[in-house]
Amino acid sequence: MAASFSIVFLCNWQPPNEHECRICEFILAIAKHHFHNNITDEAALKAQLLAECGHISNSDDQTTCKKIVNNNIDKIFADLKAGDRDGQTCVDIHYCTPAELTRSTGAPSQEVRAHR
């Protein structure tokens, strides 16, 4: 039974895609900004990040952004408190690969950038 589950899991696994990686990096950049500007409570940071997700113009990207925040706020917050390792958080939560991080410019792409 366990062997069949492992095979199914491996067959359904998909590597992270570059667009979702950029959304994750966007979230981390905003999280760092708010964390370093006195939002040091996990619940307050989550609320702020979800509000920022709502400013993304594409609804699919908004959904992805909110999913990343809701499913990973504990890891995001813990890494910020520990001094995040240059995007390693997005690799750890499986939204980026190390290769994608080396290609990153650090700035969110036009389609991910929040509209104000």
UniProtKB/TrEMBL annotation:
Question: Which keywords belong to this entry?
Answer: Disulfide bond
On whether Protein biosynthesis is a keyword of this UniProt record, the answer is no
Q: From which domain of life does this come?
A: Eukaryota
Q: Which Gene3D superfamilies match?
A: Saposin-like
Residues in Saposin B-type domain copies: 17-100
Protein's name according to its UniProt entry: Saposin B-type domain-containing protein
Q: Does the keyword Plastid apply?
A: no
Transmembrane intervals: none
